[in-house]
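Quick one:
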Amino acid sequence: MAYTITVTNNGPDSAANVRVQDALPQGITVMNWTNSLGASGTGALSDVIPTLANGAAVTYTVTIAVPESYTGNLTNIAVVTSDTLDSDTTCAQCTDTDQQYIFTADLVTVKTDNKDYYVAGSNVVYTITVTNNGPDDAENVTVQDALPQGIMVMNWTSSLGTSGTGALLETTPLLANGASLTYTVTIAVPDNFTGNLTNTAVVTSTTLDPDTSCTECTDVDEKCVSPNPDCDEYVIPRGISPDNDTKNDVFDLSKLPPIAKLQIFNRYGLRVYERNNYVKEWDGRADDGNELPTGTYYYVIHFKEKSPETGWVYINR
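Output:
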């Protein structure tokens, strides 16, 4: 911090032996000064101007180093005396008091996967957005996202180009006022996962946050249990009626994730149909091209990127 001390002689005579003093403020140990006459020094200012002519002025620049641990008001007092009688001593002492400025940064954190349900055996993708609403820059912004209970596989990337596996724990040295930082977190939900899926992100900073209500966000998803139109990612048909009326003639799985192979079994467990890279080709015929009779059949859908699914489908002729 730099102070300017200006000593002016308003006359009517010259001033002899003008003494300028500026003691170290309480709690300050480092201080340097220079003046417009070319003099300089370290530590407390104690300088004598032999003669200050009527109308003349001498300017001092005093620089102090304020420790990081400094608290409270900073008070600095400059005192000027002279061997020449001063007809008005009200301006011979000046005090400057500065209140401590506390840097603050309001960090707002939003975490969501934009869903209310999860599907066991699939991936869930969360977005964590940390925004600094100021008024100052935020230093050492740490984002933590622990693995939810029961989750073993987790990967993340950030808008800064960083990435990692496992729990997210990263510190960004500086998040400027008005800036945002985004993380994409992907977790793999096991096939046997049950109960709610709870994920919590916590954001901290070494800069004071005046409102900590938005520095921790929790996203809770319920398990999707089919059939449930509010959360089913897709619907597997329960039956087909291959009568060439263009309605429900085939086992249409085109809205499902990519399928590596579809297998159809009869009620005796014998495989009657199989096709790789299936989309919607089965029309109730066996592999040999013969029509299968009306009845219930069982399927195994082998997905390319998720666990297989099993169920039944009814052929109605």
